[in-house]
Every structure is written in C-alpha cells, then in structure tokens.
Amino acid sequence: MGKRLTQIATRTGDDGTTGLGDNTRVSKASARPMAMGDVDELNSHIGLLLCEDMPVDVRELLVDIQHQLFNLGGELSIPGFELLKDDALAQLDEALERHNAALPRLQEFILPAGTRAAAQAHICRTVARRAERAVVALGEHEAVRDAPRRYLNRLSDLMFVLSRVLNRHRPDGSVGDDVYWKSERLKRAAE
C-alpha cells in the first residue's frame, strides 16, 4: 500500500466544506462530518485511556476497538460503503458478557469516578453515546446501515462495564470498587 496522505494542510476546507471518501464535498456542519468527528473524538479518547495501566486483555480489546472505529469512520465517510463487519459487534457482545460476569451486581448508580483509567472509560462511554446520537441523526436524513449505530450503542455499554473493571484493577494486586452515588434511597435503607 502506497502513501495515502501526502499533504495534510490542503486548504480545501477553508471554505467550510470537507471532502468525503467518495470525493464529494459537504458542509463541515452537516450530519455526516458531525458523526465522523464524534467517532474520531471517541477513538482519540480511547487512545488516551490506553496510556493508563490496565489488564492486558482490556488493552488488547481497546486497541482492536480503535481499529474498528477507523472502519466505522471510513464507512461514514463513504456514503453507501460497508467497512464495519458483523464480527466487530460480536466481539463487543462477547467482551460485555465476559467482563460483566466477573463483576459484582450493582447496588446503585455509580459515579463516573474512581481511578483515572475508570474515569477516562466513562468519558469514552459518554462520547460513544454522543457519536451514536450523531449517527442516528445522520440516519434521519441519509441512508446509513444499522451496524455503525449498533456498534456505538454496544460500545458505550462496554465502556461502562470496563470502567468498573478498571476501578477494580490495581497494579499492586489489590482490588478497588465502584464509586456509588449516595442516594436518599440507599441512605434510608441503611438506617
């Protein structure tokens, strides 16, 4: 494969448009570039999460998710094209089931807090939800396959579960916990 990007500053976007993968130009404020941007931001946040200490299997999963998000973004950039395959969603489902089975049952809502890695996983979760909403908005105006929306939905669920996994992971071998919301209901139940 040859070099694909030979010039980064093309100045072609100075007029407020961006080029899609099919060589059409659209407004940077239109739904397709908005969805693409949210997916790109999500991928960048996952890259930041990967700077943290975590179990090897979680790291490998997140690296693969980054590649799948590139596929998803590529699919969004070329109307009518398919890059995200069904096995990508199956991988998320399997990871969700495996990691969730190892966690204790939730007692209450949890705060997006704890370790830095867990807090970053929560940021990834919220950006995944925003990217999902952007894909839904795009789908209201243009044809978009179900796979990108389903992948982002499942990925946000997985990031929630991984935040719980990461709150329990400690380099010294000790085990942490979730940071629970101090609700009035729990307070009354404890009295």
Automatic annotation (TrEMBL):
Residues 8-165 form the Cobalamin adenosyltransferase-like domain. It comes from the Bacteria. Signal peptide: none annotated. Keywords: ATP-binding, Cobalamin biosynthesis, Nucleotide-binding, Transferase. Residues 1-24 are annotated as: Disordered. The keyword Oxidoreductase does not apply. Gene3D superfamilies: Cobalamin adenosyltransferase-like. GO terms for biological process: cobalamin biosynthetic process. InterPro entries: CblAdoTrfase-like, CblAdoTrfase-like_sf, PduO-typ. Its EC number is 2.5.1.-. It catalyses: 2 cob(II)alamin + AH2 + 2 ATP = 2 adenosylcob(III)alamin + 2 triphosphate + A + 2 H(+). One of its GO terms (molecular function) is corrinoid adenosyltransferase activity. NCBIfam families: PduO_Nterm (TIGR00636). Belongs to the Cob(I)alamin adenosyltransferase family. This is Cobalamin adenosyltransferase. It comes from Ottowia testudinis.
